[in-house]
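Standup notes
- DV: blocked on the single-chain target, sequence here:
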Amino acid sequence: MASSLSAAVAAVAAATRPIKSRAGIKTVLSLAPRFQSLRRLSLFARPQPLRPNPSLSIRCFSALSPQLKSTLDTVVNSHKVLLFMKGTKDFPQCGFSNTVVQILKSLNVPFETMNILENETLRQGLKEYSSWPTFPQLYIDGEFFGGCDITVEAYKNGQLQELIEKAMCS
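- DV (later): unblocked, structure below
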């Protein structure tokens, strides 16, 4: 049985490639009845689609509680430049975080950092707060600016410097 099954699988694999000889066509045709039985077996083996169960209630979990949102609003709006990152500005624990820290240091801009590795609730809540799934997350003048790639691109084309200068003057 195992050898006929492996022959059938091999024939299916061969059937996906062009058949160049009459002998190959005969082999595929001779195995066709076996394919039909395999097809019937696979129909029975397929999982049935899930049907809604009205007796079950589904709760959506949000890491961004109203209290956390309020706290984040306060923190973000109280700093001109704020970086939520993995690690600290003196000891970044992620290459992307380190890149953004080095960019901000090169601009001689005062900035604050928050280590998201210290609090899992903060980490998950920030993803919802900013609608951005990764870290670091840079906030300028109370607004989410972006992650590492956006910051690097804006630094290269001069937009980051302009935005930070405006934020420092406001």
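- Follow-up: The chain has two domains: 2-45, 66-169.
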